[in-house]
Every structure is written in structure tokens, then in C-alpha cells.
Amino acid sequence: MKRNTVITILIALVALVIVLYSFMGTDEAGYEQKILKQREEKDNYMRTASDSPFAGNTENFTGLNYFPPDNQFRVKARLIPIEDKKAVVLPTSDNKTKRYMEYAHAEFNLGGNTYRLLILEIIDMGPYKGTLFLAFGDETSARETYGAGRYLDVKKPKGQNSIVLDFNEAYNPYCAYNDTYSCPLPPQENLLPVAIQAGEKNYHE
């Protein structure tokens, strides 16, 4: 092969690598901006909405507190169906209970270890009936994050056997800010033996 041809091929390969890295960097930057925008919009909602847990006390609202966006906590999870689904009763923050139906397990890898979370389905009559509910605790709970656990919104997958769990979108239940709310606590099996340093942290006025 001629020397000029080899040089041309090498230049083309280098250019391709640069382009690929450029796109990867753009994707990561775009993802981070998306998360930051969501957080800004939520702060605005908490500050202005009539049904905000801070309603009537917005002058003391200083904005929610978060870990920096971290793409390693955005994981693809395998959905494991539950054959004989049972009702699950969860205690709430105000010493009541709330019933759900088992939906599926979400199994994912993080830091070289495999973890599993139970996804529940809301069965109470109302606008949220049939939607999914995922509450979890982890090694940051009662330290850096709310002690009674955090929530993740999960949409029902359509004909898929996997979902994305983005812990950067993990959020506190309203009882973290206002004890007049009733918030379900995570099931025992959703207490993860790992620090999920992503999503919302403790709120401090």
C-alpha cells in the first residue's frame, strides 16, 4: 500500500474518532442540561403552585437540593414478570397504610453488582389508578437524602422486557417538606445496600 494512501486512511480514522467523541460529549452535555432544566422547572412549580407543599410559606423556599447529574446512575433494567401477583400493603409516614399490586421486578447492574427493585401498581380508584409506583431507600437515606426513601416515576413499558431507571430523577415525597402529607414508605426489598448518590437530597430551609 502506498504511503500516501496509508496517511489518508489514518487521517480519516482520526477524524472519525474526533466526530464520535464530539457526538458523545454533546449527548452527555445535552442530557445534563435536560436534568438541570427539569430541576429548575420543579423549583418554579414548588414556588408558585397552589398545591405545592410550600404553598403559604414560599418566602422561606430556597430551592430543592440535588446531587450533580451523573450518567452512571441512569441504568437499563431487565423487567422480570411476577407470575402470581399479590397485593402489597405499605405503611405511610402518618402511620396509615396504602395498598398496591405487584407489577414486576426491575433488575439492574450498578458498579459491578446486581440489584433488584419491586415495581408496584396503584390500585386505588382515582386519576392514578393503573399507574406504576417505585419507592426505594439506599445507603444515603437519613444521611444525605430523605430518611423515609425517595420515589422514581416509571411508565408502563409497551411490549418491552426492559426499562430505564434514571436515579438522577429520584425525588422526595411531599412529606419530606410538609408533615401534613401521607407518603408510602418503600417496601423492605427496595432498601438497596448501595449509595445512590443521584437525584434529590435532603431539603434544608
Descriptive tags:
single chain, alpha+beta, 7-stranded antiparallel beta sheet
Give an account of the 3D structure.
It is a single chain. The chain has two domains: about 1-60, no CATH class; about 65-190, no CATH class. The protein is about 20% helix and about 25% strand. It is built from one helix and seven strands, in the order αβββββββ. Strand 3 and strand 4 form a beta hairpin.
Measured by DSSP, the beta-strand proportion falls in 15-25%
Biggest sheet overview: 7 strands, antiparallel
Tell the overall outline.
globular
Parts with pLDDT < 50 across at least 5 consecutive residues: 17-26
Summed up:
With 205 residues, this protein is an alpha+beta fold.
